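Notes from hallway chat w/ T.B., transcribed later so I don't forget. T.B. wanted the structure written out for a chain they're using in a teaching module, and asked if we could keep both sequence and structure tokens in one place. Agreed to drop them here.
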Amino acid sequence: MRLPPGAPIVEKLITDQLGISRTPVRDAIRLLAEEGLVVIRPQSGTNVARIDRRELEEGRLIRRALEVEGIRLAVHRIDAAAIERLRDILSLQERAAQQKRHTEFMDYDDKLHQTISELSGHPRLWRVINSSKAQLDRIRHLATLQPRQEDRTIAQHRAIIEALARKSESRSVKALEHHLDDAYRRLDVLLKQHAEMFE
């Protein structure tokens, strides 16, 4: 979201800025196009893609389904060391929020969810989730800038960790579902506020 949907992408500017040749830049742009993040139009140029509502919803469904199943499995495998690791990630996320480092906040958000998914005993789970949420991540960056949004996320993450620490499958699932559903409701508000960014 540093470049808004519709913004032009000029290869020469990127190569000059990064001090690299055009080949890796073209390869990167091609990969971004495959993920639906940029649109390449021959003889017209390359632009940042608008956020695809269908892909956004599909990413949400995949993420919710796989994370919920992952936490069900993680509850039975979790130990004190894993809980401490999750609490450490949460502390780092809180510090990032306090210092208004939004990108870092998002990185710790993903790290916490990834750690829980990996505790399921299925390491590919997070790779599948991560590969399906590109459109979702774009609007998540907008969401972190909303007032009190980060505080809300941290409180929900704390509830998830505490439920895991109690080894309660039902509480863990409920806390995670609440967190994911609440986040998506807030994304829906952004979708209405920034309709020009979507297709």
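Follow-up for T.B.: The first helix runs from residue 11 to 18. Might be a good example for the class.
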